[in-house]
Amino acid sequence: MSEKPDIPLFQQYQYAFTGHIRNPRENKRPQGVPARRMKVYNELLYNNLEGFLLACFPVLHKVSGKRKWAKLVRDFFSTHRCHSPFFRQIPDEFIHYLKNERGEQPEDPAFMRDLAHYEWVELMLSISNKEIEHNRIDPDGDLLNARPAITPLLSLQSYAYPVHKIGPRFKPTTEQKEDTHFAIVRNKNDEVKFILINPISMRLLTLLQSSSLTGKGALLQIATELQHPDPAVVLAGGLDILHSLYQSEVILGTWKGCDNM
């Protein structure tokens, strides 16, 4: 590791010490530190970091294989600078690294970022501190003629690959791209569920999240966007979707005291 003559010697030592921990192959062990003791620091910090990543990204670990996974983790450890002191946010930092810093590497599968994000969303929802305003929701409300209440513990995600199918036996190529949409929800038992949905359901939920439309209003807007010749068909099919989403706890009922639109 290059010296930094413009800073005090003890800080130069700290840079050398941490640089060696981040990447022992590229940065020499600081003088005066026994190799055995340095190895303890190297293994302790690397193993702690990898442990948090393994817990959040088990599928990515399996499809990568031992050598590529270790190389990926080491590159993250040696090049990324975390902006949070909390261990539970290491997966967040890893996602940031994959998206903004790693760049295109020939050994990386094309689906890697989609798969990592798909696995990360489960952690994000499991620790979310968002609360449901039960006092504002009518659980028996009319989903068509009132405003459906979407749970705040919902993440709508779209991926270019069928991430839910990826595993050691299925690693899709770019020719096997398949637009895939999910409503990912944490239910009343604090279980995170991944619900595969179609583009119409995705559009419906997006409208209900971002507007004050009733269920009927949102469905009629979708019918207009589709230029469907018979909006009644869209309403009938959409009502079935609303009821299914209610059963899945994506929709919790309807908002009380809201004007219908």
TrEMBL record:
<feature type="domain" description="NGO1945-like C-terminal">
    <location>
        <begin position="153"/>
        <end position="245"/>
    </location>
</feature>
<feature type="domain" description="Putative DNA-binding">
    <location>
        <begin position="12"/>
        <end position="98"/>
    </location>
</feature>
<dbReference type="InterPro" id="IPR054098">
    <property type="entry name" value="NGO1945-like_C"/>
</dbReference>
<dbReference type="InterPro" id="IPR018640">
    <property type="entry name" value="DUF2063"/>
</dbReference>
<dbReference type="Pfam" id="PF09836">
    <property type="entry name" value="DUF2063"/>
</dbReference>
<dbReference type="InterPro" id="IPR044922">
    <property type="entry name" value="DUF2063_N_sf"/>
</dbReference>
<protein>
    <submittedName>
        <fullName>Uncharacterized protein</fullName>
    </submittedName>
</protein>
<dbReference type="Pfam" id="PF22106">
    <property type="entry name" value="NGO1945_C"/>
</dbReference>
